[in-house]
Amino acid sequence: MVADEEVKYTLDEDGFIRELAKTVVGGLGEAVGINYVSAADRPALIEHLAACEDNDYFERGIETAIEQYGLRFRPVDISQFAAVEVDFETDLLRANSLLPGTLLADVAAEVG
Prior knowledge:
The protein is α+β, with helices and mostly antiparallel strands. The chain contains 4 helices and 3 strands; from the N terminus they run βββαααα. The chain has a 3-stranded antiparallel beta sheet. The longest helix is centred in the middle third of the chain and has 11 residues, at 59-69. The radius of gyration is 17 Å and the shape is globular.
């Protein structure tokens, strides 16, 4: 199940992303912001990102590029990896709990 706040997606019959937005109903997964874009598709995506409003989320550019240009993106299951979107302090604490202890100390020393 994908939370209401998340950018969700649905798939077409070929397994490519059909819909991508926070408002998607029946989302199959969450877009986490890690994307591969081919060199041929970059100009179209850049154009769509530039057209986004300042408060739009990154995926809005991908969403409009799919709708208007038919760009194709295939989702990848990353559930076996430790990935946390960090928006709030509680997210950071969760992310830190996934890291090895020595790495946390190194990061804290660099930041502090």
